[in-house]
C-alpha cells in the first residue's frame, strides 16, 4: 500500500457512517481502495504519487464550481510557481476531461466537458441537497460541477487510477481554501459496488454504457444504486440517422476504440430503460461530437477526434461506421 499524504478518504468514510444505506459499504471500502490503488497492478503509480507529493504549498483565494471549475487566481502565485505547477501536472498526462483553471493556469483538456454539462444542466432534477454518484467519472470534472450545483455530497467512481490522481492534484489545493469539501472519487468500477444499495438521489453514467459488454445489466446495476424515485442521468453514443429500433454492434474498433459493444438508436435505448423498470424515460439531447468539443491539445497530445473520423467523409468513422453522436437520457427508478 502506498503511503498517501494527499489522497485521504477518512472524511468520506466518516460521512458514510452517517448514511444508513452506505454504512455497510464503508466497512469494505478501505480494502477496495487499497486494491484500486495497488502499485503491483499499476506500475506508474509511484510516479503519479510523486507528482502529488511535490505539489507546492499554495492556498487559493477563490473557488468556483458553479460556472466552470476554477481553483485559485493568477495573483495567488508567481509566474515561476505556475510554470513549476504546469511541469508537475504534465507528469499526469494525458488530461482528457476538463477544462480547469488552476491559479491562472488553463488546463486545456482533450474534451470540453463543460459543453456536455451545459446540455444537461437545466434538464435534470436540480441537484441541490442531493446525494450523487457519478459512475465512470474520469478525473471528476463533472463531480466538481455537481458540487457547484448544490449537491449535498458527490461520490465518483472510476477504475483508472491516473484519473484519481488528477482529481486529487486539484482537490489538494481546493481543500486548503475549504476543508472537508463533500466530493471524492474512488478507484472502483461499477462491478465493485455492493448490490441493492438503493441509496443515491441521482446517479450519472456518462460515457460508460457503450464500454459495457451487457448494457441491460449496466442499466439494472444503475437502478439498484438509486433510491426509489431517484433520477438516472445517462449519456452514451447513439446512432441517430435511423428512426426505428436498431443497434450497431461494431465488429472490431469503433472510432479507433477497442472496447465498444452496443450503440443503439435513442428509441432503442428508451425501450431498454423501460425493460429495466425505469419510468419517465426521456431523451433530453442528441449531439454530434464536434472538433470544438474533442480535440488534441497541449494537455492531451495523443490522437483525438480528427484522427478517429474518415478524412474524406467526416460523417463516417475511420472504420466506416456513422461518426460519433452522443445522447443524454433521464429516467426515474
Ligand atoms: C468516456 S469516459 C467518460 C468520463 C466522464 N463520465 C464524462 O462523461 O466525461 C469513460 C470512463 O468510464 C470509466 N469506466 C470504464 N469502465 C468502467 C466500469 N466498469 N465502471 C466504472 N467506470 C468505468 C473509464 O475509466 C473512463 O474514465
Description of the molecule:
The protein has 333 residues and is of the alpha/beta class. The protein has a single domain (10-332), classed as 3-Layer(aba) Sandwich (Rossmann fold). Helix content is 30%, strand content 21%. The protein contains ten helices and 15 strands. The strands form four sheets. A seven-stranded mixed sheet has the order 9-8-7-10-11-15-14, with helices on both faces. It has a four-stranded mixed sheet with strand order 1-2-4-5. Strands 3-6 form a two-stranded parallel sheet. Helix 1 (10-17) packs antiparallel against helix 2 (23-36) and helix 3 (45-53) packs parallel to helix 7. The longest helix is centred in the middle third of the chain and has 17 residues, at 161-177. The structure holds S-adenosylmethionine. S-adenosylmethionine binds at residues 97, 113, 135-138, 157-160, 163, 189-191, 206-208, 211.
CATH topology: Rossmann fold
Shape: globular
Number of strands: 15
- Biggest sheet architecture: 7 strands, mixed
Helix and strand string, N-terminal first?
HHHEEHEEEEHEHEHEEHEEEHEHE
Which structural class best describes the helix and strand composition?
alpha/beta
The CATH superfamily label reads Vaccinia Virus protein VP39
CATH first level: Alpha Beta
Distance between the termini: 38 Å
Percent helix range: 25-40%
Tally of separate domains: 1
Q: What's this model, at a glance?
A:
By secondary structure, this protein is α/β, with parallel strands linked by helices. It has ten helices and 15 strands.
